[in-house]
């Protein structure tokens, strides 16, 4: 397992350099539209190809499920999002990331998230804690009376139920943050920059690495759904916040 974590870090480090190069030259990229508000660029494809190639060198028999190149349902294997937050990436926002996770018996147990434009990397292994840029990390206690929660924005999330959730959170005293990137929302929750994060109608590759990192940072974490497109959800946060999430399902 230690080998998997170290190799995952090496894969993501190499991919980060490639992604950042493309980010700095994003106006030259070829871009295609998968669906409204969902784009793919040559950067996404090149980064996924690179990570898959590196994983295959070390673990040739282990399956990989990725956003751009697909794959089978993962029980024991890897899942990756080469550039989560492609829209942010293409508009020049630094709020995008690379996400790589390993699952054992269907559960994420290793996670690596890199934010190349912000110059930091989070990693975690079940039962071993979190590292930030290679150093052990302890999530700080948030300031009192400053409550902020991140909410996802899947195109498949009905506007009425999303609006009701946001209204319920505001009524319960929470400020809202939207990043249009699950990898950012989950990582920021683990770092203590927000109190928690909720995303519905999402995919395994968007949330698996962040879920491990949040859990190891001390947050409660719940993943639900099936490994089919836009059929999963993730919630992370304190017991109080998770209760608010549970009371505002509105699927």
UniProtKB/TrEMBL annotation:
InterPro entries recorded: Inositol_monoP_metal-BS, Inositol_monophosphatase-like
An example molecular function term from Gene Ontology annotations: metal ion binding
GO BP annotations, alphabetical order: inositol metabolic process; signal transduction
Cofactors, names only: Mg(2+)
Keywords from the named record: Hydrolase, Magnesium, Metal-binding
Keyword Cell membrane on entry: no
Secretion signal span: none
List of residues binding Mg(2+): 67, 81, 83-84, 206
A Pfam family annotated for this UniProt entry: Inositol_P
Family recorded in the similarity comment: Belongs to the inositol monophosphatase superfamily.
Full protein name: Inositol monophosphatase family protein
Species of the source: Pseudomonas syringae pv. primulae
């Amino acid at each position: 397992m230690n080998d998997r974590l170290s190799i995952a870090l090496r894969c993501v480090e190499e991919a980060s350099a490639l992604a950042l190069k493309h980010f700095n030259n994003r106006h030259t990229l070829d871009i295609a539209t998968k669906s409204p508000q969902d784009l793919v660029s040559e950067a996404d494809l090149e980064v996924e190809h690179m990570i898959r190639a590196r994983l295959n060198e070390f673990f040739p028999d282990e399956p990989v499920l990725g956003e751009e190149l697909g794959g089978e349902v993962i029980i024991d294997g890897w899942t990756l999002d080469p550039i989560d937050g492609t829209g942010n990436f293409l508009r020049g926002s630094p709020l995008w990331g690379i996400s790589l996770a390993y699952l054992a018996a269907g559960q994420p147990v290793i996670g690596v998230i890199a934010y190349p434009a912000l110059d930091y990397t989070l990693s975690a292994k079940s039962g071993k804690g979190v590292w930030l840029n290679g150093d052990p990390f302890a999530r700080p206690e948030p300031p009192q009376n400053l409550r902020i929660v991140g909410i996802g924005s899947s195109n498949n999330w009905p506007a009425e139920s999303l609006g009701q959730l946001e209204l319920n959170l505001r009524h319960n005293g929470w400020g809202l943050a939207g990043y249009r990137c699950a990898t950012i929302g989950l990582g920021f929750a683990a770092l203590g920059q927000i109190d928690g994060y909720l995303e519905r109608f999402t995919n395994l590759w968007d949330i698996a690495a962040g879920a491990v990192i949040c859990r190891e940072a001390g947050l409660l974490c719940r993943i639900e759904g099936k490994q089919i497109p836009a059929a999963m959800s993730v919630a992370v946060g304190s017991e109080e916040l998770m209760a608010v999430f549970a009371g505002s399902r509105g699927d």
